[in-house]
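Protein modeling request. Please complete all fields; requests missing the sequence field cannot be processed.
Requester role: graduate student
Desired output: 3D structure, token encoding
Chains: 1
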Amino acid sequence: MIFIGIDPGNSGALAVIDHDGNPIDHMKNTSLDADLFRFALSHQPSFGHIEKVHSMPGQGVASTFKFGASYGALRMLLTCAAIPYEEVTPAKWQGVLGCRSKGDKNVTKRKAQDLFPSVRMTHAIADAYLIAEYCRRARLGL
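Delivered output (142 residues):
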């Protein structure tokens, strides 16, 4: 089984891990939609989780619209690629993985680096890998 985790937004990514929790690949959301779709298809994930997001107070209208469009496109990517998925809140996946960030991206980056030491972890990909790990644990009942 292969699992995909998606951190939406332009500063997020898609990450793919295997049944044993080994990292397979990742791609930043800044890529073209068609490239993201080919990425998802090339790995044939068995299941995915996408972070459930919403607009934030103080966000501008244009940035909120762009963020929502990206979120919708990523959900459609999963649907069109026939990858079953669920949405998961940050509080849920961070709680299960023991890395409540309270907005500090360094917390999740450190946790991701601990879990995936072979990956050169960045803020852009860390949450996607952690969401993929949450997906793996949830699907396998770990």
